[in-house]
Design a protein that fits this description.
Length: 465
């Protein structure tokens, strides 16, 4: 067994010399064997080994005894022990999670804390080949895609270092044999034998059938996982290149993309582009996203309706408006309005950009008029001017038109994304009449003439220009 694991470690460059290794230890056969294996390499590779154990407080006295067992084992073997008791049930209720997800989040947060405390480079976990088979089958059943179908990675970034899984090349039977040969007497978690969870049903009912067909089936699945990951990493690089053309804006909790540009990319890159955006918005902690979510997202973008919305897990909202699609943890209704005074000579800054004001006694020769620049007769204005967001019932008088036009209709006609409308700047005269909707239209208020003595010039600069 040692030879198999050593070859696997060498192949994937998992365990360099002179590093601090935190080993996640539950007290069961897999993690106890891994701790023993890493401890054996301590002197040879000049490692600093730390055991990290979490009592999730879900199994009463049994889990409390696991804590004591691991602590005593480490004391006997001269291994630094870090343990914690976490009320996972309370965390589960507070965050409305399943018990398994809640336990995982608490456990990994503790592992990250231990790594930071000891400046750890590596978190070693004892997932093995049978776990890999179970995971890949389970994700296939649930409709995973991309890297999700590849199952458990051998190595990935975590906290300030990496997670490694050197036992993915082993079967459960081989680990049990290792424990017997090294006089290790692990704890047994009886919940592993219940059929309550899908993973356990696959382990107890499906895996034995596969092993009868091929006792080394875990190695075939592991090989398939590595091949799939190689392919996915290549496709991800292509996807990143395409997404740079597709994404219009990217903020901490919000991404805006061009629908037309996305749907003109190859379909495999569309799906992976969606996944990359989710990885960014969820900050790497992507919940269970399946092919169903992906198909719903793509159908939303490709249908003929100019607008639509979709809810994703953990409060992520998706909505489309014309050629733009927004993915955000803030709903459209969460947008907060603003109002600020616009100086005649100076700059006012707001969420979407800034407006610059200048006053001239004669019309500047260099001035280039466009939708982002207007000229006003200063004497026809009432100061102070204001910049604010839209209000219910806003209207403006347009040059060459009788009556008024609703700002809402102006936004619709100009195909302004619904998520942008509540933040769009509107310049208002001191008496409340709308003077200008920057980037779109100006009103017929205060138009300059041959009799104008003072010219007010306003420039609008979008935050993305």
């Amino acid at each position: 067994m040692r030879q198999v694991v050593n070859s696997f470690i060498k192949k994937h460059s998992l365990l360099p010399s002179g590093v601090t290794v935190v080993v996640g230890v539950s007290g069961g056969p897999d993690s106890l064997a891994l701790l023993h294996f890493v401890k054996e390499k301590e002197k040879q590779l000049k490692l600093k080994v730390i055991a990290a154990h979490v009592d999730h407080m879900l199994r009463g006295d049994e889990s409390a005894e696991d804590y004591i067992f691991v602590e005593n084992f480490c004391r006997k073997e001269g291994i630094l022990f870090e343990g914690v008791k976490i009320n996972v049930r309370q965390y589960q209720i507070e965050h409305q999670l399943s018990s398994q997800v809640a336990a995982r989040e608490c456990r990994y947060r503790f592992f990250a804390d231990v790594m930071k405390k000891h400046q750890g480079h590596i978190l070693a976990l004892a997932h093995h080949g049978d776990d890999q088979v179970e995971t890949m089958i389970m994700r296939q059943i649930r409709g995973a895609q991309g890297t999700g179908l590849a199952g458990i990675p051998v190595k990935r970034s975590f906290s300030e270092g990496v997670i490694i899984r050197p036992f993915l090349c082993l079967s459960k039977e081989e680990i049990n044999h290792y424990c017997q040969m090294n006089n290790l007497i692990p704890r047994i978690d009886k919940s592993n034998f219940t059929s309550k969870y899908m993973r356990n049903r696959i382990r107890n009912e499906i895996l034995p059938i596969l092993k009868r067909e091929n006792p080394s089936v875990h190695l075939r699945f592991q090989q398939q996982s590595e091949l799939m990951l190689d392919d996915e990493h290549f496709l991800e690089r292509l996807t990143e290149q395409e997404m740079n053309k597709v994404i219009i804006t990217k903020e901490a909790k919000r991404v805006v993309l061009s629908i037309s540009k996305l749907i003109h990319t190859p379909i495999p890159l569309q799906r992976r582009g969606f996944q990359l955006i989710l990885n960014y918005l969820y900050e790497g902690n992507v919940p269970e996203i399946t092919t169903v979510h992906i198909e719903q997202f793509l159908l939303l973008l490709k249908n003929d309706r100019p607008s639509g919305a979709l809810d994703l897990p953990s409060g992520l909202k998706v909505w489309k408006s014309y050629d733009q699609c927004v993915l955000s943890f803030e709903s459209e209704k969460d947008a907060k309005g603003y109002e600020c005074q616009l100086p005649l000579r100076g700059i006012v800054t707001f969420k979407k950009g800034k407006i610059i004001g200048e006053v001239f006694n004669s019309l500047p020769d260099h001035l280039q008029l466009n939708k982002n620049v207007i000229i006003c007769d200063l004497e026809k204005l009432t100061v102070p001017l204001l910049v604010r967001t839209r209000l219910q019932g806003d209207c403006m008088s347009l040059q060459g038109m009788r009556g008024t036009k609703k700002i809402k209709e102006l936004f619709i006609n100009k195909k302004i994304h619904r998520s942008d409308r509540d933040n769009w700047p509107i310049v208002v005269n001191g008496d409340g009449e709308i003077l200008w909707v920057p980037g779109l239209r100006r009103s017929k208020l205060a138009l300059p003439s041959v009799d104008t003595r003072e010219f007010l010039v306003l420039y609008y600069k979008d935050v993305h220009s």
